[in-house]
């Protein structure tokens, strides 16, 4: 007997799957693929963090259930980070909670605060969990076009004016994945004013707070006076300390939202494995020269990529933050769209990137390039791309393509 599962039906086919399947087939045939597709750090966590994990995991008493809101020491460590980095005071008992990465925190908060039919404002293009965490929870998404050609507040005001019912929350993500856009504190000040006037909650994804270049640290929305009245912010250790598989993040800010997330999580999980939480304390409280080293690593890769591709004939804006470059399709290939271009690049240049359409229809003119290959491999990819750009043929009438959000 066939069944239609309502929540699953609301999720479109995963656009990245087609490129991933091509990549897997190529590797199975022995082809060398330079993979810029997933933002998956390729370096290990700092040695002192690993040492703390090993030391803690040897304690026979440490393997029991943990706590879903996070051990007190880790919540205090996150509060200390906010004080040190942003000058923001955080109550570790009521204004922050440990999450299994920022992705889990966003998705579970969506479950906690969403009534079916609620309208949520989400950027487009965006990291998929931003809209789809709420879609899974039963919300309706109103997309806010973002990117280098967009006027954010003009688009936001237009979206709110035409929302029925009025929206209940907005998702922000700066530094942005995938576009690498950054904003200043004045942007957040305007956003807090707007949210209070419209009775909106703000959910700010600050996962790339520490991956910035050229000496311009991104601000936190919680630096704005009164922001805690409407805002909660998600941060992560994944990129800062090269700990993506450890699944360690935080939600911080508005007490009502933190309480709602705490309540939901108490039914769903017992928190991260305690030794991981203890090691996360060592990351936040320990020496921070490892964070500077991570920034230097990505900055060097960025410069090699941007300068090399420019010399190859593909001009790409240099990102100020994140571990991504948001690359407009070369003009000759623009009619193909991002998915077909990504497939051609993989097949003919042996270079994998993420098609922009996977982040929303406003991303279709771009691909995302992750800075996850070393400089030697990046130069290899640049040589392959140069040959591709010089020799590839493009049909005058590309096949009709389907615009699918993911």
Describe this structure in a few short sentences.
This protein has 406 residues and is α/β, with parallel strands linked by helices. The protein has 13 helices and twelve strands.
Describe the structure.
The chain is of the alpha/beta class and 406 residues long. Helices cover 42% and strands 13% of the residues. It has helices at residues 6-9, 15-28, 47-57, 72-86, 101-113, 129-136, 152-161, 185-198, 255-268, 274-285, 289-312, 337-349, 375-391; strands spanning 34-35, 96-99, 119-124, 140-145, 169-173, 201-205, 231-236, 249-253, 324-328, 351-352, 354-355, 366-370. The chain has a seven-stranded mixed β-sheet with strand order 2-8-7-6-5-3-4, with helices on both faces. It has a three-stranded antiparallel β-sheet with strand order 9-12-11. Strands 1-10 form a two-stranded parallel sheet. The model is unreliable at 397-406 (pLDDT under 50).
């Amino acid at each position: 007997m066939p069944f239609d599962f309502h929540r699953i039906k609301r999720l479109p086919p995963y656009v990245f799957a087609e490129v991933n399947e091509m990549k897997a087939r190529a590797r199975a045939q022995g082809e060398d693929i330079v993979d810029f597709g997933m933002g998956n750090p390729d370096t290990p966590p700092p040695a002192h963090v690993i040492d703390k994990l090993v030391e803690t995991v040897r304690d026979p008493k440490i393997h029991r259930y943990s706590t879903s809101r996070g051990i007190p020491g880790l919540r205090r460590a996150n509060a200390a980070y906010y004080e040190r980095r942003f000058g923001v005071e955080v109550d570790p008992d009521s204004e922050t909670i440990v999450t299994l990465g920022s992705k889990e925190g966003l998705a579970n908060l969506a479950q906690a605060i969403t009534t079916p039919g609620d309208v949520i404002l989400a950027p487009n293009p965006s990291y998929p969990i931003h809209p789809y965490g709420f879609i899974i929870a039963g919300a309706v998404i109103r997309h806010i076009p973002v990117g280098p050609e967009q006027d954010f507040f003009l688009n936001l005001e237009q979206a709110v004016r035409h929302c029925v019912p009025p929206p209940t929350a907005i998702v922000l993500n700066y530094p942005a994945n995938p576009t690498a856009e950054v904003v200043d504190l004045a942007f957040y000040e305007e956003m807090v004013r707007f949210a209070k006037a419209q009775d909106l909650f703000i959910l700010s994804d600050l996962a790339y707070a520490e991956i910035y270049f050229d000496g311009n640290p991104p601000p936190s929305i919680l630096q704005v006076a009164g922001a805690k009245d409407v805002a909660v912010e998600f941060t992560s250790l994944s990129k800062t300390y090269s700990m993506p598989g450890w699944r360690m993040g935080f939600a911080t800010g508005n007490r009502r939202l933190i309480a709602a997330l705490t309540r939901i999580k108490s039914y769903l999980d017992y928190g991260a494995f305690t030794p991981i939480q203890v090691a996360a304390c060592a990351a936040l409280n320990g020496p921070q020269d490892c964070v500077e080293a991570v920034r230097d690593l990505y900055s060097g890769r960025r410069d090699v990529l941007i300068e090399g591709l420019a010399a190859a004939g593909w001009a790409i804006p240099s990102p100020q933050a994140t571990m991504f470059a948001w690359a407009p399709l070369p003009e000759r290939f623009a009619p193909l769209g991002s998915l077909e271009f990504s497939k051609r690049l993989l097949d003919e240049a042996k270079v994998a990137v993420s098609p922009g359409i996977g982040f929303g229809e406003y991303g279709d003119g771009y691909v995302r390039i992750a800075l996850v290959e070393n400089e030697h491999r990046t130069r290899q990819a640049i040589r392959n791309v140069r040959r591709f750009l010089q020799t590839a043929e493009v049909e005058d009438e590309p096949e009709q393509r389907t615009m699918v959000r993911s």
